[in-house]
């Protein structure tokens, strides 16, 4: 298993954990269940930790694919920037979830509004998660690149030439 494979294994976790966390947190808010809220906080913390893994394996994945046909350095750079922004928000979400978990157990006064603060941070993080996921997918999945068209069952990854009907042949 190489770094690219490891990155592909872990890179979905930072996106999946917050989605599940939001669902569990909403259940906790609507049912007024502290147990559900605490479980959501733990899920958000796991999401932040998985972001660390995804970021740690990203550089190795870049080295593994940067010289492959159809992979543009600009796509990698765009994904890297989106992933860094999302990871930062994921860490903030994990920190807020940790603070919320502690305040839940200690019954601090802030515990009443912390689920809503965490929910807002999670919504923001998930917005940027979609961008990180989309840009990462575009690196190897030419069919989802914006403006890309497939000609003769082949896509060179150069959407500008294919849009104008030009070919590299």
Explain what this protein looks like in three dimensions:
The chain is mostly helical. It has one domain. Helices cover 74% and strands 0% of the residues. The chain has helices at residues 3-10, 13-31, 34-65, 73-106, 114-140, 159-163. Helix 2 (13-31) runs antiparallel to helix 5 (114-140). The chain is elongated.
Q: What key attributes describe this structure?
A:
mainly alpha; 6 helices; 74% helix
- The helix-and-strand class reads mainly alpha
How many β-strand stretches? Answer: 0
Mean pLDDT: 85
Topology order in helix (H) and strand (E) letters: HHHHHH
How far apart are the termini?
A: 36 Å
As residue ranges, the low-confidence spans are: 149-169
Q: Based on Cα principal axes, name the global outline.
A: elongated
Kindly estimate the percentage of residues that lie in beta strands according to DSSP.
under 5%
The number of distinct structural domains comes to 1
Layout of secondary structure:
Blueprint: H1 3-10, H2 13-31, H3 34-65, H4 73-106, H5 114-140, H6 159-163
Helix pairs in contact: 1-3, 2-3, 2-5, 3-4, 4-5
Protein name: DUF2231 domain-containing protein
Keywords: Membrane, Transmembrane, Transmembrane helix
Biased composition (Basic and acidic residues): 160-169
Short structural description:
The chain has helices at residues 3-10, 13-31, 34-65, 73-106, 114-140, 159-163. With 169 residues, it is mainly α.
